[in-house]
Hints:
The protein has 32 helices and 14 strands. The protein is mainly alpha-helical. The two termini are 72 Å apart.
Amino acid sequence: xxxxxxxxxxxxxxxxLSGGKKTDAEATNNNSRSSNVSKSTQRNQTQNKxxxxxxxxxxxxxxxxxxxxxxxxxxxxxxxxxxxxxxxWLGEEETLVINGRKFTKGFFYFGxxxxxxxxxxxxxxxxxxxxxxxxxxxxxxxxxxxxxGYWPSFxxxxxxxxxxxxxxxxxxxxxxxxxxGYVFIYFYGxxxxxxxxxxxxxxxxxxxxxxxxxxARLLAIYGVNRSFRSYSSRLLELMYLLRKNVMDDAxxxxxxxxxxxxxxxxxxxNVQSGVALQSELALEWLKDTGEYLFKAxxxxxxxxxxxxxxxxxxxxxxxxxRIKPNKTKxxxxxxxxxxxxxxxxxxAGNLPDPSILKGPIxxxxxxxDECTEQLSAYSRYLAKSDxxxxxxxxxxxxPNELVTEIKSPVIERFKSWxxxxxxxxxxxxxxxxxxxxxxxxxxxxTNKKENQLIISLANKVGVGVAPDFRFHQSxxxxxxxxxxxxxxxxxxxxxSRAYYQVATALRLGAMVATIDGRVDDSEMLVLKRLxxxxxxxxxxxxxxxxxxxxxxxxxxxxxxxxKARVESLNDxxxxxxxxxxxxxxxxxxxxxxxxxxxxxxxxxxxxxxxxQVSSDIHKLTSSSVxxxxxxxxxxxxxxxxxxxxxxxxxxxxxxxxxKSMLESIFVEEEPVIEVEVQGNSDGLxxxxxxxxxxxxxxxxxxxxxxxxxFSEHKLMIDGAIETINDWSFDMVDAPVLExxxxxxxxxxxxxxxxG
Length: 755
């Protein structure tokens, strides 16, 4: 039986040792500490004792088992050291000389013998002066080799790596070129110092705060490495939680991290106190939970997202969100980066753990979704190259409620200027003058994009613009004018059928009134009455139409397509059109040769017989005079003709068909704005195309998930993402992939790239 047991033990040892070897790719990944697999999981796999049960040969005794305990390490074995001095913590102000290097600052463990807090092996951060090290500055800070490993330890470093670490430790400890593994060795010491102190309180408040500041300094320098950012942030949170009063008195705050200990504690205290949840803690809860995935706008526009979330949360829950304490008790668990420190349980008292509740999260998700949707355009603008939050184009893409909250100086200046234009110049301004307030170069033309930008800017300050292509069926021209008016259209403006019919009549009227190069007051009065005397129009519609009329009377005539449409009219419809034209032209009560010539030009332009101008004038004036003779209330001075009744007749019930006819004939024909068709993944080589096609199958990937995908196609993750985003920028002027701890896919951009 002993022989069988021995053979089994040898086999297991062989499998463990052979399984511990890493490929070159794995070693590179470990050295860079870029793997997304948690260290606590790997530590459980390699550090726990392995129990092996072997059945006895005597099958009659089923309880006869032999148990072996085999402890394995992950990394190189430490070199031997003659130093037997017990390791101790060096205070920040302590100085010493190690291997020719002068240290003016402590903050690390020093000595020859100090076990890990878990009872296994040597403390990885312990600096042993008797272990061999290369000479001072013999190695560049970029140097590293396999001895650094995934869980680096001072004792297992090569001579060269150990010397380099001592060089860095003797410096100001902020060289950004050094491998993150060296920084982790230094960081392990802080973890031990804080964890070991939890139950003993040997660390003074002064030292505690100094350690907090030092870790925060390291985070600011080396936080670009997501692994270090994660573990250092969690340690800072733990420290804040342990001595909150000290931290608050010093005015320092812990950074946010996933699965935040400090957050869980604050949430539990808030719920236990019975105080309703406020927006800030609600948003933090949504970030902490695994039930919701924040999309690109929330990540890229974090500050704006938080403000918008608060506005919407406060509107929906004006008294806050009340949550009843649940029965599950709060357990705070801290997992250190060091493999020499076991998982640590923090006493949270008798607090509930509301962080596990799903109900409140379901109430918060719709708010976050609405914020995401409203910030989508703004987010995509910021993703473009050479853009900034203070750009006027960026501000225009923000929701109106957020613009009010932010109170941008640019928007405030524009609001003041626009109100001055409305008061002093009745809102009339040139497009070029308006454009100066966009703080953008003057475009070559005003297409749909430029029209939208002008309307959006005015809309942000409650001002309307005429023409507004959404309602007036006309576009702003770069060399033309526009009219500002207040209050503007607003978000809920929906024009009626009567609005569009009157707008069409105004276009025809403005065309007639401006044929002689000037607009007479009586002509203006007639056209204004078309608006004011129509009781079917709302006050907002009338305000919009008055602005539209003013713009029409101060803009070049556009008769595109009119001739073809007039040719399709029947005789009665043509007579009605001529009646409107002549009535408006003669609103000033005079008929001179020059005006007749202008009417003839207009008749010709729209396909009417110009030889009929004189007879049409005579027909209208004769009928008006005859009617006025029978009207005893009409003054003698009005015996030429009555223009009001002729023009305003379009408001009578029996002329509704004529109004519809006008609308169909005199509709605006704006040039079609060409939209460039987007491309597809043909702009990528085969490897990048293959990776892209896999990545877009879902919205979020961990780096650990995509490692094999990129490796299979012989691509480095960061470089490939940059290449794909460069292609995406070329196609749709926005990135399709976004890196954080995970890799996110902008599915809206994916759809655009499909064309």
